[in-house]
Amino acid sequence: MDIIKSLPASKAIGYDNIPTRLVKDGNSILARPLCTLFNSSIASWKFGQVLPVFKKDTEYFKKNYRPITVLVTFNNIMERILSQQLYKFFKDKLSPYLCAYRRNYSCQTALLRILEELRIACDNKFIAAIVGIDLTKAVDCLPHELLLAKLKSYGLSNDSLLLLRSYLTERFQRVKIGDTFSDWTRINKGVPRGSVLGPILFNIFINDLMYISRGSEINTHADDTQLFTRGRDSVTIQHSMQVDLQSASEWFQSNGMSLNVDRCLSMWVGSNSEDLSLQLDSRNLQLCSSMKLLGVTIDNALNFYEHVSELVRKVSNQLQVLKRHKLLIPTGAKKRLYEAFILSHLNYCSIIWNHRGKKNADKLEKINERCLRFVFNDFHNTYDRLLDYINQPCLQDRRIHDMLTLTYQALNDTFLYM
């Protein structure tokens, strides 16, 4: 019953057209028969409806859409039960450097680990190097038999394996665009995007990737993987990175995944950096002076000027869009739009670049002040007064608060890798 009550009422409706709100309202009646049904069969809920969600760039190319599978509500209840049991079983078996789909982990903690290693290298006049590895549709390419073999090697019982085999195989999906549907098609590999069980199965599948490197560190967040290392000798670093990059490439190929070599980037970090020449599948990786990792642009000097400038430009563009409709949007709605589409960007992974200078901090405070003056149509009061309207501290104080909270969590062993 607790799992049914925890379901989000606004969740999209599956192909059976049964709304989540109806299931939540009837949880006291449905809980017992659902329990009996879950223990006997899951064959009825192997149908998913795929919605293509636009990501970025031009909307006329299929590659710019992400397929999200909408499953029926009863299936989500069952998956939550299985996910809780799998999480308990694998809690001490997964690498601490798998940073996605786990409690107390986030993009910010993943980036923090990488950035601290790079900062230590710079502070000690070392040379550091990082490679960002890009995968093509990783979640959609998992071979079912190999996933089941890995689950067996971790010690799952035969009954559990039979249940998960039933979950993975004989699945069907169709695409919905507007009121138009494609035919039902069988799925032969991968786990459904948008499912509850898919993320933990993906983490289990790639867990052994974390142990293949010899001289480099590996960090992963979903299908974003980074190799990084530091040292005094550039020749040794390059050799170490090349060996581990080749090992990672072989692991991906043997596990049914494909690398997008054109989008794999390499970068030296620090004032003593040199040209980094790495190859993947007999092709040179692109050497860059900055790369975007998990939504944050990291430059080879670690000053984050490029990231802050890009952030200010993005927020400014969003503000201009809102200003075009200022006469049509009431203050309450403008406030909600500000919190959802502007403040969320300004606070995203902000402690990563918190100590990168007063110039960066001032640029962000100024664009935030502009946004607040638009929201409240107030061009006379001070910035502090505008912050009082939304009951929020300034961005700098918010970053310090977040940093102290994270420090407390790290000191109290919330994070196994910090």
Structure description:
The structure is a single chain. Helix 10 (305-323) packs antiparallel against helix 11 (331-347), helix 10 (305-323) runs parallel beside helix 12 and helix 11 runs antiparallel to helix 12 (358-376). This protein has 14 helices and 14 strands. Among the domains are: 107-138 and 208-299; 305-412, no CATH class. Strands 1, 2, 4, 5 and 6 form a five-stranded mixed beta sheet that branches. Strands 7-8-3-9-12 form a five-stranded mixed beta sheet, with helices on both faces. A two-stranded antiparallel sheet has the order 10-11. It has helices spanning 2-5, 20-25, 27-40, 73-90, 107-123, 144-153, 158-168, 198-206, 234-254, 305-323, 331-347, 358-376, 383-390, 395-411; strands at 47-54, 65-70, 127-134, 171-177, 180-181, 185-187, 217-221, 224-231, 265-269, 279-280, 283-284, 286-287, 290-293, 296-299. With 418 residues, it is α+β, with helices and mostly antiparallel strands. It starts with a helix and ends in a 7-residue tail after the last helix.
Largest pleated sheet: 5 strands, mixed
Order of helices and strands: HHHEEHHEHHEEEHEEHEEEEEEHHHHH
Low-pLDDT windows of residues: none
**Contiguous helical run count:** 14
Q: How much strand?
A: 15-25%
Q: Structural class, from secondary structure content?
A: alpha+beta
Taken from the alpha-carbon principal axes, the silhouette is globular
User: How many individual β-strands?
Assistant: 14
Helix content: 40-55%
Q: Mean of the pLDDT scores?
A: 86
Radius of gyration: 24 Å
Tell me the span between the first and last alpha carbons: 36 Å
